[in-house]
Amino acid sequence: MPAYRAPLRDMRFVFDEVLDAYATLQSLPTQREFGNDLGGAILEEAAKLAENVLAPLNGPGDKQGCQYDPQSKSVKTPDGFKAAYQQFAEGGWTALACTPEFGGQGLPHVLNMMVEEMVCSANLSLGMYPGLTHGAINALTQHGTREQQEQYLPKLISGEWTGTMCLTEPQCGTDLGLIRTRAVPQADGSYAISGTKIWITGGEQDLVDNIIHLVLAKLPDAPDSVKGISLFLVPKFLEDGSRNPAFCGGLEHKMGIKGSATCVMNFEGAKGWLIGEPNKGLKCMFTMMNSARLMVGMQGLGIAESAYQISLGFAKERLQSRSLSGPKAADKPADPILVHPDVRRMLLRQKVMIEGCRALAYFTGLHLDVAHEHEDAQIRERADDLVQLLTPVVKAFLTDEGHNCSNEGLQVLGGSGFTEDWGIEQLVRDCRITRIYEGTNGIQALDLVGRKLGLGGGRAVRSFFALVEGWLKANPEAPHAAAVGKALKQLQQATLWIASEGMKDPEQAGAASVPYLRLFALTTLAWLWSRMALVAQQKLAAGSSETRFYGAKLKSADFYVARVLTETDSLLAEVQAGKATLMAFAEDEFAA
Amino acid sequence: MPAYRAPLRDMRFVFDEVLDAYATLQSLPTQREFGNDLGGAILEEAAKLAENVLAPLNGPGDKQGCQYDPQSKSVKTPDGFKAAYQQFAEGGWTALACTPEFGGQGLPHVLNMMVEEMVCSANLSLGMYPGLTHGAINALTQHGTREQQEQYLPKLISGEWTGTMCLTEPQCGTDLGLIRTRAVPQADGSYAISGTKIWITGGEQDLVDNIIHLVLAKLPDAPDSVKGISLFLVPKFLEDGSRNPAFCGGLEHKMGIKGSATCVMNFEGAKGWLIGEPNKGLKCMFTMMNSARLMVGMQGLGIAESAYQISLGFAKERLQSRSLSGPKAADKPADPILVHPDVRRMLLRQKVMIEGCRALAYFTGLHLDVAHEHEDAQIRERADDLVQLLTPVVKAFLTDEGHNCSNEGLQVLGGSGFTEDWGIEQLVRDCRITRIYEGTNGIQALDLVGRKLGLGGGRAVRSFFALVEGWLKANPEAPHAAAVGKALKQLQQATLWIASEGMKDPEQAGAASVPYLRLFALTTLAWLWSRMALVAQQKLAAGSSETRFYGAKLKSADFYVARVLTETDSLLAEVQAGKATLMAFAEDEFAA
Asked: Quick check: is B432 in a domain?
C-alpha cells in the first residue's frame, strides 16, 4: 500500500498560481507579512507531520479502536494517538489560525484548511480531536465574555485542552427544537445542566487533562422551539480541580472513524456557564457549525486524495491483461491495468474531482479570510456572501465526492480493495460519516436553496453569477469558456425555477435541493477548471519547464468537460421535474 | 431495526401479472405441472426460511466473523450458521432447480433466482455457501463424465457437500491466462494439483463433511494463455476417506461478508480429476460464471430490498422537524421525516430501482428457463441470446444499485445509519463486494460491448430492440411509452456509435462501456416500468380492490421517468465523448 504523500505541488498551484492568494492575503491588515516563504514552510512542515506521524497510525487505530471502561467511565484512544496528539498540539497546529491575543498564530484560515486537508488524508479519526476544539474556540471568541475567553481560550488554542460540541440527543438531530437537556440557574450565576447527549466526538478521551464541552440546553422558561435553546460551557474538571458530573456513558459502535471516540454523554447536574445570550444558542451553534462545515468538506477532500494515491499506485503496479491497442509492457507477463480505458476513467474521475474540489475549497477559504479581516466593509460583505453561499456546497459536494472517489478507488483495486490490506476500504468507511455529520448533505442542500439563495434578497447568488460572467467576459479565449457559459446558463435557469416555484411552495425548493446543489457544484468546478487550464496555458506559453504538470492540467480540464460536466443536463431536468412525483405518494404506498 | 419481510406481493406481481411466467413455464416440457399453487407455496416457504432462520443470524454473523485455526487449518463459521445451513439443505433449497436425475427438484431457474433474492436480503454471508455449490453443479452437469456426475452430483445437489470455484491467484484475477497452478498427470488417470488460490469462498468451513473444489490449473504442456487452462475437480476428502492436501492457509480480512469464509487455498500435490477437455477450462469456467453472475445480481437486489425496508421503517418512525406545508402529525412533537421531499426522493429512488431491477432479473431468469428447455430450437436460441445479452447488465446494474440503494438508505437514517445498531451499515459493507466478484462491473461492461453486442453479428441486440419496439407498437397508449421510445432511440444511437467506432478501435468501446451499460439498464427499466404501469392500469380499470398497490405502481413509474430516466441524456453524451480524453494522459501525468 503506497504511503500518503501530501500533494504540495498541486496545493501551491491552486493557492498561489490560480487564486493568487498571497496578494489577496497581504491586502489584509493582519496578514501583511504572510508570504510565499512562510506559507510554503508551514505547508511542508504540516506535510511531514501528516505523512510521518499521523498516517502511520491510521490503519492500526482503525483496527484497535477506542475502548470504554464502564468502571471509571473513561475512554482509551488507540495506541500512539496520545503522543501524536501532543506532537500536533506542541507544533502549534491547533493554534495556527487562532487569534494571537490568546496565544494563536494568527495565520490565515485558508492555510488552516490546507493543513486540515493533509491531516484528514493521513488520519481522519485523530484529526477530529483537535478539529472539534475549533468549534469551541470560535464560539468563545465570538460569543464569550472577556473573562470566559481569558479562562478557556489559551488552553484550548494551545491544545492543552480540547473542546466538544454537544448538540444531538436521542430524539433530536436535525431538529434542535426538540432538545430536552435542561439548564437550571444556580445562585452563583452558573447553571446545573442535566440531560443526555449522543454522538459527541471526543466527549471523553485520554489525550488531554481537561475537556471543555459546549452544550445546547434549555432554560426552565424557554420557548419550546429552536428559539428556546441556549449554549453552555461545561468543563470536565472545574477550576478547583473537582470532577464535574459530565460522564461518558458509552461509545457508539460505528462503521468507521473507529479511532475517534464517539461518546454518549450524561450531564448529571453538571456545572455550566451561559455563552452568549439566553435563548440565543442557535446563533452560537451556527458560529461553531459554519466553520465546522467547511472543515468537514476538507475531510472529504483529504480522504479522496488518499484513496486516489492508493488506487493510482495499484493501477501502475498491477499487471493484468494486455492493452486493447497492443502490449505496452512486452517484457512483462501483462500490462499494468493503467493502460485500460475504463481504469483510466475511474482514476481520472477521481483526479479531476479532487483537483477541482481543492480549488473550490481554497477559493472559499480565501474569501473567509477576506470576510473576517478586510478593511473595506463592502468587500467584507461581498466575501462573506460568497462564503455563506458556498459553505453548504463545499460541505456536501466535497464529502459526496469523497464518498464517490474512495469507492471508485476501491473499485480500481478490485478484490484487493475489499480486503483490509490496502487501507482503502477503511477510507470508504471513514468517509461515509462526512456526508452525515454537521448537518446531513440533504440539510446542506436545504440550507443552500432555503437560506443562502435568498441571502440579501438574492444578493449573494447574483454576485456569484456576476463574478463568473465577468471572468468569462474578461477571458473569452480561456479553455472551455463556452462549456462554462452553457453550464452557468443551466444553473441560472435552475435558480430561477427555484426562486419562482420555491417562493410559491417551499416543498418545490425541497424537492429540487439535492440535484440543485450538485448542479451548482459542477458548474463552479467547470469555471475553476477553466481558470486552472488558462493558468496552465499561460505558464506553458511563458516557457515553463514543468510541461508535465501544466500539460496534465489542460488534459484534466478536457476530461472534466467531456465526461463529467455532461451530468448538468440531467440535473437541470431533475430540478425542473418538481415535487409532484415525490409528494403524490401516501404513506402506505411506499412499501411494496 | 425493522425485521426483514419478503416482498411476496411484489414478486408475484412481476412474475405472474407482468411476465405471465406460469404460462411461459407451462409451455416447457419439464414444467407442465408448475403452477400458481406450487410456485406460491414455495415462495412462502422460502420467505419463512429467510425471515425466521437466516435473517436473525446476519448481524451476529458479521460481528463474530469466521475464525481460522492455523494448527488444524480449519475454519469455524459464526454460531448458528451450521444449523441454519443444514436446515437450508434439508429443506431442499440447494436442489430446487437441479436436475431430478441426481436428486434435484427440477423446478424453474427463475424460481431459484427469486429464492436467492430473499436469501440474500436475509443473510448474504450464509447464502454464499450453498450459492457457490451451484457453480460446481453446473460445471459437472454440463462438462463432467457420467461417472463424475454420479459420484458427485447427488451429494452436491442435496447440500450434503458444498462446492467452490478456485480461479483467482495472487498475480491473476481478471486475466486468467496468468494462472500458475499446475496439474501433473498421474499414472492412475488423476492429476497432482499444486498452487495457491485466493479469495475462495467456503474453501474451508465447518458446515459440511466434504468440499468439492473446482480448480483452474495448467497442464505441463499447456499454451501460456487462457487457451492453456483446464478445470479440475479436487475433493477435500477422497473416496477412501483420506485427506487430500488442499488446505486453507488463512482467511482474508475484509470490509464485509464477514460470516463468509474467504480462504487462501494451498494445493500441495492434491489429487484431482479433469473436468471436460484439456485446455478447455475457460469454457467450463464460463458455465460456472454465467449463472453465478445472475446470482450476484440477485445479491445486489436482495441487499437493496433489505436496506429499503430499514430506511422506510426509520422514516416512518423518526420524528424530526415539521413538514414544509404545515404540521402533519400535530399531536406529536414533530412530523415523521417521511413528510420531507428530499427524504421521499431518497426512498423513492430506492423503491423504483428495486422494483425495476426485480422485473429485469425475473425477465432474464424466465428466458433462462426457456433457453434451457423449450422444444423449439429457434425459441431456445432467441431466449439464450437475451440471457447472454442481459447477464452482464443484471450483474453490474443490480449490484451498482445495491450499492446506491443501501447507501441512500443509510443516508435516510443519518447518524443512526452509521452506527451498527440499525444493521444498514453492514448492508453497505456486504454489498460492496458484489460490484467486484465474479468479474468486476467494469468487466461486465466490457463483456457487454465486446462480446454480447457482437453476438451472432449483432443478432442478440437487434432482437432485443425489436422486442421493445414491437411492444411499443402494440401498446402505444401504455404509460410513458413516449419516454421509453426516446430512451430506446438514445440507446440505439449509443449502440451504433460503439458498433462503428469500436470496430475501428476497441479502446473506443472500452472507453464507452460503463456509461453504455448503465444507459442500457436504465432504458430497459423504463420499458419494464411502462409494462408494469400498463398492467396496473388494466387491473384498476378491471375494478381490482388493490387500489393502493396498483396506484403506487403508476406513481412509481411516473417518478422513474421524471427523476431517474433523465440520466440517459448525460450517459449518451459520455458514451459519445469517446476515448480521447482518457488516453491522452501519459503514465506520469496521473499524479498531481
From this structure: no
Q: Mean per-residue pLDDT for A414-437?
A: 97
Q: Do both A177 and A270 map to the same domain?
A: yes
Residues A290 and A253 in one domain: no
B522 shares a domain with B458: yes
Residue A28 inside a domain? The answer is yes
B-facing residues of A in 377-406 (CB < 8 A) are 403
Among A305, A418, A433, A572, most B C-beta atoms within 10 A, so best to mutate, is: A418
Q: Are residues B54 and B91 in the same domain?
A: yes
Q: What is the distance between the alpha carbons of residues A132 and A257, in angstroms, rounded to a whole number?
A: 14
Predicted confidence band at B334 (pLDDT cuts at 50, 70, 90)? very high
Query: First vs last Cα of chain B: how many Å apart?
Result: 44
Q: Give me the sign of the Cα torsion angle B254, B260, B261, B267.
A: negative
Write out chain B residues lying below 8 Å of A551, CB-based: 589
Of A354, A507, A589, the CB nearest to B324: A507
Q: How far is B209 from chain A (nearest CA, A)?
A: 28
The 10s digit of each residue's pLDDT in B82-133 is 999 999 999 999 999 999 999 999 999 999 999 999 999 999 999 999 999 9
Share the mean pLDDT of chain B: 97
Closest approach of B56 to chain A, Cα-based (Å) = 19
Boundary-marking domain end, from A235, A251, A279: A279
Check: CB of residue A213 under 8 Å from CB of residue A231: no
Task: Tell whether A203 and A105 lie within a shared domain.
Answer: no
Instruction: Pick the more confident residue, A444 or B282.
Output: A444
Determine contact: B338 vs chain A, CB below 8 A: yes
Residues B181, B221, single domain; the answer is yes
- pLDDT tens, position by position, A400-416: 999 999 999 999 999 99
CATH code, B214: 2.40.110.20
**Is pLDDT above 90 for A322?**
yes
Q: Is B192 on the interface with A (CB under 8 A)?
A: no
Please report the DSSP string for B30-75 in residue order: GGTT--HHHHHHHHHHHHHIIIIIIGGGHHHHHHH--EEETTTTEE
Helices (H), A414-480: 415-418, 424-432, 441-447, 459-474
B contact residues 401-420, partner A, Cβ 8 Å cutoff: 403, 407, 410-411, 414-415, 417-420
Active site residue ranges of B: 438
pLDDT at B224: 86
> What ipTM was assigned to the predicted interfaces of this complex?
0.97
CA distance A574 to B564: 8
Q: Which of A316, A321, A411 sits opposite B435 (nearest CB)?
A: A411
Total domains, chain A: 3
Q: Record the cell numbers describing residue A201, joined without a space.
A: 466526538
Residue A316 shares a structural domain with residue A370 = yes
- CB contact, 8 Å: A421 with chain B? yes
CATH of the domain at A564: 1.20.140.10
State the nearest Cα–Cα gap between B225 and chain A, in angstroms.
10
Does the beta carbon of A256 lie under 8 angstroms from any beta carbon of chain B? yes
- Of A256, A279, A302, the last residue of a domain is A279
What sign results for the dihedral spanned by CA atoms B82, B88, B89, B95?
negative
CA distance A291 to chain B (A): 20
CB contact under 8 A, B558 and A341: no
The set of catalytic residues of A is 438
| Contacts (Cβ under 8 Å, ≥6 apart) of A55 | A3, A4, A121, A122, A123
Please state, in angstroms and rounded to a whole number, the distance separating the CA atoms of residues A156 and A235: 12
Residues 505-564 of B with CB under 8 A from A: 505-507, 510-511, 513-514, 548, 551-552, 555, 558-559, 562-563
A337 with A482, same domain: the answer is yes
Say if B20 falls within a structural domain: no
Over 90: is that where the pLDDT of A539 sits? yes
Provide, as residue numbers in chain A, all residues whose Cβ is less than 8 Å from the Cβ of B437: 415
Tell me the average pLDDT across A204-225: 96
- Residue B61 sits in a domain whose CATH number is 1.10.540.10
- Does a structural domain hold residue A590? no
Domain of B101 in residue numbering reads as 26-65+77-156
